[in-house]
Amino acid sequence: MRWQTAVVTEIVRRSRAVSSFFFRLPEFVPFAAGQHIIVRLTAPDGYRAQRSYSIASAPETTSHVELAIEKLDDGEVSPFFHEVVEVGDEIELSEPVGGHFIWRTQDGGPVLLIGGGSGIAPFVSMARHRALAGSTAPMLLLFSARTRHDLLFADELAELRDRQDGFDMITTLTREASPPEGISKGRIDAGTIAAALARLPGPVRRIYICGSNPFVENAAQHAIDAGVEPGLIATERYGV
Known about the structure:
Blueprint: E1 3-13, E2 18-24, E3 36-42, E4 48-54, E5 65-70, H1 78-83, E6 90-94, E7 111-116, H2 121-132, E8 139-145, H3 154-162, E9 167-173, E10 184-185, H4 190-199, E11 206-211, H5 213-225, E12 233-237
Parallel strand pairs: 7-8, 7-11, 8-9, 9-10, 11-12
Antiparallel strand pairs: 1-2, 1-6, 2-5, 3-4, 3-6
Helix pairs in contact: 4-5
């Protein structure tokens, strides 16, 4: 594993619990949309803690790497980022990791992306990659969040949808009694996934699911219940 010491150049609050941390690397390492990076922290006594975070920035963006990190109170790494890290700090980052959960423009579509909470990060990378590369491959993002305040990257994703070039998005909220117009209420289930599949212009080529362990397990089973072949499903679980 190759490691580099990166500098935090910007911190952007995405929601009450999630912030994007932007890193400048001494040497940019090419990656594919969907890959993740391991963050390694070393305490003064030598103790090390590390966690993996999906890259949210597009492969075409070489000036920085963006990681969307959710603060989990029982985590070893995420509270440090939210409570301690400041612009200018140096953090150890690994080279990009993972090859099973990637999408390149040459892979085409239609593809269905199912994300829960901060599990949307790799899909933001895929959507940005698609837009910057000028692809028109059909791509539909099914995004589940707790409340309207937890809709990460909402404005940017809405702009990509409004281009009407084949990128679409369905959003559902699980803890809102009265969601905003155009947003559904409730959890993702087999019916939700079946409706998303029917919205695609052709048979789905690949389904990507990312989120917490329970979210991924449930969504994968719901996709199978909706008639999706298990071999078409790729999953990624985010850490703490």
